[in-house]
Amino acid sequence: MTTDSNEQALLMGLANNERGAIEAIYRNHYSMVKTLVVSNSGTADDARDVFQEALIVLYEKARSGSFELHSQLKTYIYAVCRRLWLKRLQFDRKFSVDLANAEETASIEEDIEKYELRSCDFELMEKAMESLGEPCKALLESYYLQKKKMVEIAREFGYTNADNAKNQKYKCLMRLKKIFFGHYKKP
Amino acid sequence: MEEMVILESIERYIRGEMLPEERIFFEELRKNNPGVDQMVVEHTDFLHRMENFGERKSLKATIQDIHNQLSETGQIKISQEPKVIRPWLRYRKVIGVAASIAGITALGITGMVTYFSSKTANKSLEDLSRKVFILGGNMTTLSDRLKEDSSKTPAPAQPAFKLGGTGFLIDPKGYIVTNAHVIDNASTVIVQNNKGQEFKTRIIYVNPIADLAFLKIMDSDYKVPALIPYGMNKSNVDLGEEIFTLGYPRDEIVYGEGYLSAKTGFRGDTLACQISIAANPGNSGGPVLDKNGDVIGILSNRQAQAQGVVFAIRSKYILSALEEIKSDTAYADIRLPQPSAVKNLDRIQQIKKIQEFIYMVKSY
After folding, report:
1. Using CB atoms within 10 A as the burial measure, which of A153, B20, B118, B235 is most buried?
2. Residues B309, B311, B312, B317: is their CA dihedral positive or negative?
3. Chain A residues with CB inside 8 Å of B57's CB?
4. Contacts of A13 in chain B (CB under 8 A)
5. CB contact under 8 A, B56 and A118
6. Whole-angstrom Cα distance, residue A90 to residue A99?
7. Phi/psi of residue B250, nearest 5 degrees
8. Which chain A residue's Cα is nearest to B79?
9. Taking CB atoms and an 8 Å limit, are A177 and B66 in contact across chains?
10. Can you tell me whether residue B161 is helix, strand or coil?
C-alpha cells in the first residue's frame, strides 16, 4: 500500500512539475529503460530520448486527471518505452518489428497517440516561435508563458509604457498565429 | 486597432478578469456577433495550445536538467557497458552469411582433398624411375636434333628424356638389364655410362609382369670390355645380409648400402625381396650386390607409405628371363658373368671396378 500511495504522490508531483518527484522517477527507472534500449541496438542517447518522452507521456496522463495507475509505475514506464523504441526502430530502419502483445498495450497505445498528436503541436509551435525571432519571442513568452504583467514587461523590454508593449505584443501574436496556422494547414 | 481591443477583451474574458457588468456586456456581444464568438473560440484554442507548449517546454527543460545533474553526480550511468553486444547484434546477419560461406568453402576443400588424395593413396607402390616432365618437344624434334648433332659436331646432345633409371651390363657384348617400368612406352632408349658417354640401344625383351627389360647397346662407339667384375648370386640370401647398390637418382652415379630385411616382396611377392636401403627415383633397375660383389637382385620399387621399404627382383628371375631370350637364336650367345672378380677387395675398390658397368638408362 505504501508503494501505491508513494507512486500516486510521485505522479501528482510530476503533474505539478515538481523537481523532486521527477528526479525520484528518474533515479528509480532510468537504468531499466537504458538496458532495454541499449540491448536492442540503441545508444545511451536513444535511451535518454525514449525515457524523457515516456516521462512526458506520463506527465500528460497525470495532468488529464483521469489517470489511475492500474499497474505499477515501473511496468507502465517499461511498456511505454518499449512501444516508443519499437516505433522508432521501425521508422529508422524501415523494417517491420513484430509488435506483439497488442492487447496488453492497448491503453498505452492510446496514451502514446495522444502524446504524439501534442508533440506535433509542440513542434509546430516551437518552429513558429523560432521563426518569429527576437524580441517577439521573448515578449510573448514573458506574457503568455511566464504570465508577467504588461507593466513589468514594458519595463523589462524598455517600452515607454504598457500600452506600447501591449501594441507590440499584439503584432507579435498576430504574426505567430499566422505562422503557426500556416504550417498547421500544410501537413 | 479594433481587433486588438477585442482580443484583449477576449483574453481578459478567458482569464476571468472582467468585472461582472462588463462580462454580461461581452457575453451579449458574443451572442449577437458571430464574428466575435468565432474569435473567442479560436483564440481560446490558440491560447490553450500556447499553454501546452509552455508547460511541455519547461517540463523538458526540467527533465534534461535532472538528467544532467544525475549523470554528473553518477547516480545514473550514461556509459554503455554492454557495448560488446552491439556489433554482434548489428552484424549478426552478415556474420551468419560469412560463416556459412566459410563453412561451405571448408567442406568443399575437404571434399576435393579427399577426392583427389584417395586416388594417389591407392598407389601404395612407387616405381623408382626418374620421371622428367617435358613441356614441349616430341620424338621428331628429338631425332632431328640427334641428326643435327651427329652431322655438325660430336658435342654431347642434351635432349630431354621422359623417364630415367639405372641398368647394368650382364654380358660384355652390350646386354643391359633394367626394369620394364623404366623404359615404359619408350620409343628410344639411350644409356650413359659413368663417364658421360651415351650409347644407342635396342630393346630386346620386356616383361612388365616380372618388371624386367633387356637392352642391347647398338653403337659403334661402344668398346666391348674384357670382363664384367661382378657375378650372379643364384642362391638364396639370408636376412640381415649386407648389400649395396649403385644407381643414377641424379646425373652422377650414387652409392647406397643397406641390408636384406625380408625374403619376400610387396604383399608376399616371392619374385622379390625386401631390402632396407636409401633409394630414390632413378635407382630403378640398379643392381643389388652382396658383400662379395655378386648381384642378388635388381632394385625396382618402394612402398609408398613406409620409410625405407624397398623391393628388389631376385636375380634368379633375371636368369629365367634370360633363358627365355636365349630361345631366340639371335641372342643365344649371351653369357652370364663369371663369379665375382672383386670378392676379396674392399668396398671402395669394388665400387671402382663395378661402376663403369652401371649405366644410366634414359627413355624417350
Report:
1. A153
2. positive
3. 122, 126, 145
4. none
5. yes
6. 10
7. -135, -170
8. A44
9. no
10. coil
Alpha-carbon separation of residue B312 from B44, B126, B258, B295 (angstroms): 117, 13, 12, 11
Chain B residues in contact with A10 (beta carbon < 8 A): none
Q: Which among B300, B294, B289 has a CA at the least distance from the CA of B256?
A: B289
Kindly give, in sequence order, each residue whose CB lies less than 8 Å from that of residue A17, ignoring residues fewer than 6 positions away: A59, B55, B58, B59, B62
Distance from CA of A61 to the nearest CA of B (A): 13
From the list A17, A26, A140, which residue is nearest B67 (CB)? Answer: A26
Interface residue of B50, B70, B86 to substitute, partner A, most A CBs within 10 Å: B50
Q: What are the b/e assignments for B59-91, b being 16+ CB within 10 Å?
A: bbebbeebbeebbeeeebebebeeeeebeeeee
Torsion from C-alpha of B260, B263, B268, B272, nearest 10 degrees: 70
To which H or E segment does residue B303 belong? Answer: strand B294-303
**Cell triple for B266:** 610387396
Contact across the interface for B56 and A19, Cβ inside 8 Å: no
Q: Exposed/middle/buried for B290, CB within 10 Å: 0-12, 13-18, 19+?
A: buried
3-state DSSP call for residue B300?
A: strand
Give 10-residue mean pLDDT values along chain B (364 residues). Answer: 73 77 80 80 82 83 83 65 61 90 95 78 67 51 56 49 85 90 84 89 88 89 85 83 89 89 83 86 88 88 78 87 84 80 86 90 87
Q: Quick check: B57 contacting A, CB < 8 Å?
A: yes
Task: Please check whether residue B167 is in contact with residue B285, taking contact to mean a CB–CB distance below 8 angstroms.
Answer: yes
Of B279, B283, B280, B286, which is closest to residue B261 (Cα–Cα)?
A: B279
Contact between chains at B50 and A145 (C-beta distance less than 8 A): yes
ipTM of the complex in this document: 0.76
User: Do B156 and B198 touch, CB atoms closer than 8 A?
Assistant: yes
**Secondary structure (DSSP) of B33-99:** -HHHHHHHHHHHHHHHHHHHHHHHHHHHHHHHHHHHHHHHTTSS--S-GGGGHHHHHHHHHHHHHHH
* B62: nearest CB among A19, A118, A180: A19
DSSP state of A23: H
* Structure confidence by residue, pLDDT tens digits, A35-52: 888 887 778 788 888 888
- For residue B220, give the 3-state DSSP assignment: coil
Contact: A52, B70; criterion CB under 8 Å: no
- Sole residue written with cell 507593466: A151
Assigned CATH topology for domain B126-364: Thrombin, subunit H (2.40.10)
How far apart are the C-alpha atoms of B238 and B246, rounded to whole Å?
A: 21
Residues 6+ apart with CB under 8 A from A7: A69, A72, A73
Burial B305-333 (b: 16+ CB within 10 A, else e): eeeebbbbbbbbbbeebbeebeeeeebee
